[in-house]
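Training component of the fellowship. As part of building independent skills, the fellow (R.M.) carried out the full modelling exercise for a liganded target. The chosen ligand was zinc ion. The inputs are recorded below so that the supervisory panel can assess the work.
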Amino acid sequence: MRYLIFSDIHGNLEALNALLKFSLKRRIDHYVCLGDLVGYGASPNECIQKVHALRPLSMIRGNHDKAVIGLDSIETFNPVAAAAIYWTKKNILKKNAEFLTHQAKGPRVVDEAFVICHGSPFDEDYYIFGEFDADEAFDYLKLPLCFFGHTHFPCVYAKRENTVEGTFLEGNSNEIKLEKGVSYLINPGSVGQPRDRNPRVAFAIFDSEARVVKFFRIDYDIEDAKAKIIASDLPPALAERLSLGI
Ligand code: ZN
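Fellow's submitted model of the complex:
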């Protein structure tokens, strides 16, 4: 099976469209979404509808999805992120908010082949930012492969015996072959708000027969995404950060 695994779309329709266009040229058996469809970007409704239409095999909610539907307090959000949540609450259509309420809490097992979570397997809101966090997360995994999101940094943590090694993925294409006897925590990066100073859309394809994960970075119409943010009353800083990839 070939799974296209994507996360953290954050209301960026132009980025999501680039991903969808790319996926039409590849053989993809299933889509798997790691949450945060909304928050930050100016197109929450369109992003929800497009992801819904993809019929993901499996999907989980993110912290911004929860905050928009009132399942999470905004207190933990910084002022700009909180302003975007208020804006999204005001602009989201009822049917789309309803779609978010039906999304499951991670972790979830997909096809008995791998686990997905938004933040970490022990707490859906926890950020795995380094080897120490990853080491704790490995203790909670039911399977030796887990995809997570939330930090917006494409990376791989591998656990061999008792050693955890983290690798941040630089450049626009990367590939890893999964080794037997090694456990993996893998972040495909963010579709709609990359933060590793590479503004391109990030996602991954997992080929379960070949045991290979390929990481992609593709261009999209950033200027259109920025113009929509500026034209709305979202904080303008949210437009600027898209070009910087922060
Ligand atoms: Zn996010």
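The panel noted the following from the submitted structure. The helical segments are 13-24, 44-54, 63-68, 79-91, 94-101, 131-138, 222-231, 237-244. The chain has a mean pLDDT of 97.
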